[in-house]
Amino acid sequence: MHRAALAAPPPAWAKVRAALVRPDGHIAWATESTDDATLTAAAGTALAITHRT
After folding, report:
1. What is the mean pLDDT of each run of 10 residues along the chain (53 residues)?
2. DSSP state string for 14-39
3. Which residues contact 13 (CB under 8 A, 6 or more apart)?
4. How far is the C-alpha of 2 from the C-alpha of 20, rounded, in Å?
5. Which residue among 3, 26, 42, 45 sits deepest, i.e. has the most Cβ atoms within 10 Å of its Cβ?
6. pLDDT given for residue 3 in this prediction
7. Where are the domains of the chain?
């Protein structure tokens, strides 16, 4: 997981702490959670769902 901050987020994104961006540029998943364990678990689940074979 890589962390980055938006320089000037629009109001709707102000509280977003994590997002999974698909290769086509669409948001697959986003959250406002600040708990690292929750973020890691949710991101792992989102990746598993978006990368089903």
Report:
1. 71 84 84 85 78 64
2. TT--EEEE-TTS-EEEEE----HHHH
3. 6
4. 10
5. 42
6. 67
7. 13-50
